[in-house]
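All the exercises in this workshop are built on plain-text protein records. A record pairs a protein's sequence with a compact description of its fold. The structure tokens are whole numbers drawn from a learned vocabulary of backbone shapes. Once this layout is familiar, the rest of the handout is easier to follow. An example says more than a description, so a record of this kind follows.
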Amino acid sequence: MTSPRFRLCLLPRAVVCLPLLIATATAPSLAAEARSPTYPYAAYAESRLDPQPFGWPLSAEEQAYVQIPEFDRKPGKDVRRHRPDMWPVVPTASRWRKAPEENIWITHHASALGQARAAGTNLDMLLVGDSITQGWGGSPIDNVQWNPAWQKHFGRFRTVNAGIGGDRTESVLWRLEHGLLDDVSPRVVVLMIGVNNAPHVAANGVPPEAVARGIALCVENVRLKAPAAHVVVVKVVPAFDPASAVHRGILAINDAVVALDLTKDEHVHLVDAGAGFLTADGGLHTAAYSDGHLHLSPAGYGLLADALAPTLNHLLKDDGT
């Protein structure tokens, strides 16, 4: 298929074979391109690395492309040069598999996308993020009921949970470019992403500022595709040993997000739930984590719900009763 034109900006450093998936995709229209942010990696724009940069269903070419190991599709691989500063800001599909012909992550995306489209305009909230978002329950991926904290605080709202464990900013960008908000009009999008980028900050030289810009691109993408929606950005919840480089990376990502001043857009709101997860001396309240350091326990989801409730109730014009 014909790939679209990409604009260039400079970023400072700082199968499973399902009929849904293999249906023939048409070339993206200029209108569709106009509803996408500008991505910063020049080689990505010029060489059209991704045969279908946006749109759903996936073409046969894109189906084959997302079977390539993810690292071999990351910016810089094409010129045999690592570009970790570009990883968080260029849409990249993840790849999970149990057999060579599978990409379970794509199947998960298709399931969440299908549920969102079924809701259409009859949707209060769309949740977008990683395993912490998926852990609220209600996900078409794992067929688990909404957890008690969600049911208590937000069960009255019509919500689709599109969180997928392991997602990073770049995978959320890919999902937004490949149908997640097509024909969907949520009143609020809750975005909680970045914790899975933090290990790359610690180990691969990804600048925390690049992760923050990836979060900002996710926000911009939602604002372009669903301009009436409010976007609630949840700062990355503290995780991992406070003495670790990964924990420091999380703090640096959050600082970089604050520095971008996303809330200058009156449709964007920033929620910081972090204080409830930390002790007075900066340690983790381990009881808030099911594994002691990352994934949340029922108590942790209660803390997160308490932090979210004032903003969500206000945006949805609900007094919380």
Summary: The radius of gyration is 19 Å. The first strand starts at residue 125 and ends at 129.
